[in-house]
Design goal:
six-stranded mixed beta sheet; binds magnesium ion; alpha/beta; 7 helices; binds adenosine-5'-triphosphate; about 35% helix; 10 strands; single chain; Rossmann fold; about 220 residues; four-stranded antiparallel beta sheet
């Protein structure tokens, strides 16, 4: 199992979820849907070890994240976990290629030109991030995460800025990556059609986390 979360509870001003359980297997894609403000991004950040939940445990590859030393967490974050945030955090003063090089150096994995071609950004990577369109930036930030070859990908509305065709192209690529590398993806999305392409779909609503579809 890639990821297991047990009895997760978290609240900010109000309780978001209580005693939530979740797991992710190798080669699996799981979608989380639900209205704005229901806590999807918070849950994704908890599963990715970015936010510590009020209660409960999160384990990656069978190791309880909380019990690890900070250096071990860093290692897992750098090599094994890939996070595609709702708003992408590219290094804005740098070119596309420089952004990819950072991921490549940190993980020791080469930049995959074939992937850049298939994302249709190979011809713009010498440009500064500020000179890229919103959709190009989004594809670049997904490419940057995939460059690391992570075992688990956490994606928060990864295709929100893309047209239908580019979006389905990028997502096909991501799903193929997951299947071929025995990785896994947790995808937060408002797009129910996209969610339906995942192996399992959960809805987070009024604090309830319910399985709504399984293949
Ligand atoms: N760091 C924080 N401090 C305080 N409250 C927060 C924090 N992060 C999120 N919240 C609150 O938690 C609730 C859930 O936020 P979250 O971002 O998880 O929702 P979401 O389901 O991802 O929504 P959306 O679909 O709009 O992205 C919101 O009411 C938000 O204001
Ligand atoms: Mg969100």
């Amino acid at each position: 199992m890639l990821l297991e979360a047990k009895e997760i509870s978290h609240s900010f001003n109000y309780p978001l979820f209580d005693s939530l359980n979740f797991y992710l297997n190798e080669s699996e894609s799981v979608a989380i849907i639900g209205v704005s403000g229901s806590g999807k991004s918070t849950l994704l950040n908890i599963l990715a070890g970015v936010i510590e939940p009020n209660h409960g445990t999160v384990s990656h590859f069978g190791r309880d994240f909380k019990s690890l030393k900070e250096s071990e967490r860093e290692e897992i974050r750098r090599k094994d976990l890939g996070i595609i945030f709702q708003s992408h955090y590219l290094f804005r003063g740098f070119t596309g290629r420089e952004n990819l090089e950072v991921a490549s150096i940190l993980s020791g994995e080469p930049i995959d030109m074939e992937m850049l071609k298939s994302f249709n950004i190979d011809s713009v990577i010498e440009q500064k991030v500020t000179q890229l369109s919103g959709g190009q930036q989004q594809r670049l930030s997904i490419a940057r995460v995939l460059t690391k070859k992570p075992k688990i990908i956490f994606a928060d509305e990864p295709t929100g800025n893309l047209d239908q065709e580019s979006a389905s192209h990028v997502m096909e690529n991501l799903f193929n990556y997951v299947k071929s590398k025995k990785a896994g993806v947790v995808l937060v999305t408002h797009d129910e059609k996209l969610a339906g392409k995942c192996d399992r779909v959960f809805r987070l609503e009024n604090g309830l986390f319910t399985l709504v579809e399984a293949k």
